[in-house]
Fold:
Amino acid sequence: MTGGAQGFGRGIALSLAREGARIAVADLNGEGATETARLIEAENGAGTAAGITADVSDEASVAAMADEAARAFGGIDVLISNAGIVRSGGLDEMDLKTFELVTRVNYTAYFLCVKYVGRIMKKQHAADPSKYFDIIQINSKSGLVGSNKNFAYAGSKFGGIGLTQSFALELAPYNIKVNAICPGNFMDGPLWTDPVNGLLVQYLRGGKVPGAKTVDDVRKFYDAKVPLNRGCSETDVVRAIIYIIGQEYETGQAVPVTGGQVMK
Structure:
């Protein structure tokens, strides 16, 4: 799993470990990845997790990550491509360097992870053609509908769904299912609440919510968009992951987990 050092990613990794998964936790924040692995082992026993330092936007690092994860557990059955960043801003504020950073981490890195993990899964399929494998991108509701003054992120996530569908077609002969999960707003995680770069602050600064004076105003605005009246949780996403892994007839899909905010 990429992007598992903190927040949403750490919560997903811990929850999946409780369901019996052994987790290779990869992140640019190597200390955080190691700490997540330590927490998993503390709950589930030695050998149930490994922390890996990896830059998912760098090809050599991704190749090494895939090899290290396969060595740690004797193969890879599931890839959860979770690493991602958000940099909001309108056309006048967004510079090319920032746009390319978002694209590199959210879009290009997904390709790299599938490329190198997919090679390992293909070898495992050759050894046991009856076995199924899963590649799951943690996408976003912003991969399903446009996002005002957040086009860099939304564009990268729309692109991720295009990759998901295309990878699903290419990898189906190897029993590798490829799907995306599109969560709604994880309002209680650091992606939203970080006081410096969190989305609540970014959206307030960028004027994304008309009339908002405080981050509380921004949060209320987004809560009001959800028919089920709350943000997305780790449990909601983990349940979707378990559903996808647990059946053999779902590939190339983008599964909304949005409380009805986005309906497809």
Observations:
- Strands lie at 23-27, 49-53, 78-81, 133-138, 176-183, 254-257.
- The chain has a mean pLDDT of 95.
